[in-house]
Amino acid sequence: MTTADDEQLVLQSVDAFCERHLTPAEVQRRDEAHTPANDLLVPMAEMGLIRAPFPEAVGGIDLPWSSMCKVQERLSYSAYFAGSILNRVLSFGIMPLMAHGTEAQKDALLPGLFDGQRVIALALTEPDVGSDARAVKTRAVRKGDGWVLNGRKTWISDAGGASHLLTLCRTPEEGERSLTAFLVPTDAPGIAMTTLPKVGNNCMPSYDIGLDDVPVADEWRLADVGKGFAAVTSALIYSRASQAATNVGLAQSAADLATQYARERHQFGRAIGEFQVIKHRLVDMHTEVMKARLMVRELARRIDMGEEPLEIAAMAKITATEALQFVVNHGMQIMASAGYSMDSAMQRHWRDARLFTFGEGSNEIQREIIAKVLRIP
């Protein structure tokens, strides 16, 4: 059983990791060079971070998800991309395999994931499909003992450094509504990837992916035919908690940056933080961060109890992503040109933050999920 001492030791290790690998200068360098975060996974694995939330049988310590959310918040306080890459390995790699993978798939993929040597990218979104995941058009057709995939996936994060794409496809031979998931090797013939230029999150590259007669052996099918939607989305409750936690970490970093600036910047003979308009704005920023943090901790507590509270997961995603946008917008206003400068971390927070209210399921869709659970007409 994990204790508070175990959690504290893990968090101390995370702090040491950040001091060593995520200094402000290094984070700025990576952002400017568009350097992916994959290389950080090996030192994360060496400190036991990737295995931590899993049973002792696979080298973990059964660290509760409430503790893992604190881990990801701390990582993202230093650099959002560090918390994000850990979230992807856990939520879109290990979790689906643990829940739906065959023993052969687990033997082939889990060791590399646990050791930080492998990434599985979620290939879900498509052009003209957006947040309607059930409307995917990419098709998988049986051919001999395997499948042939045709279609296009877009805005697929970290695909360039992934060994496999967790790909949701329509399998029309089983019925027009049949959706099946595949772990598609990225070195399979017929896959073409193009990097997508974007505003922020430079260390989390995104790709447009074409699938042209891509052969996939049936051994790489994840879960039963027609059960792909559940296989792909089963880990979303963990991903929602992780994404919300990383947003809280980033928001706290931005709030602290603005607060420090308000203490040091002087106008009209005194620190601007002494002016009520600035003081109250900073209070509102920190209040929004705390509200989001409490929502994340409630979601994590429910997960630790074995629940799958879809509405709480959606609420956490909404609260954290919108708190982050509130904080960076007001932080940018407080810091003005000092925050707008490319030398400032605030401009990076501001650029990165804009993605999250529509990334990984728009907040409008999250509100629909909540309304459905609450049976609101």
UniProtKB/TrEMBL annotation:
Its cofactor is FAD. Residues 5-116 form the Acyl-CoA dehydrogenase/oxidase N-terminal domain. Residues 226-374 form the Acyl-CoA dehydrogenase/oxidase C-terminal domain. Pfam families: Acyl-CoA_dh_1 (PF00441), Acyl-CoA_dh_M (PF02770), Acyl-CoA_dh_N (PF02771). It comes from Acuticoccus sediminis. Residues 121-214 form the Acyl-CoA oxidase/dehydrogenase middle domain. GO terms for molecular function: acyl-CoA dehydrogenase activity; flavin adenine dinucleotide binding. The keyword Aminoacyl-tRNA synthetase does not apply. This is Acyl-CoA dehydrogenase. InterPro entries: Acyl-CoA_Oxase/DH_mid-dom (IPR006091), Acyl-CoA_Oxase/DH_mid-dom_sf (IPR046373), AcylCo_DH-like_C (IPR036250), AcylCo_DH/oxidase_C (IPR009075), AcylCoA_DH/ox_N (IPR013786), AcylCoA_DH/ox_N_sf (IPR037069), AcylCoA_DH/oxidase_NM_dom_sf (IPR009100). SUPFAM superfamilies: Acyl-CoA dehydrogenase C-terminal domain-like (SSF47203), Acyl-CoA dehydrogenase NM domain-like (SSF56645). Belongs to the acyl-CoA dehydrogenase family. Keywords: FAD, Flavoprotein, Oxidoreductase.
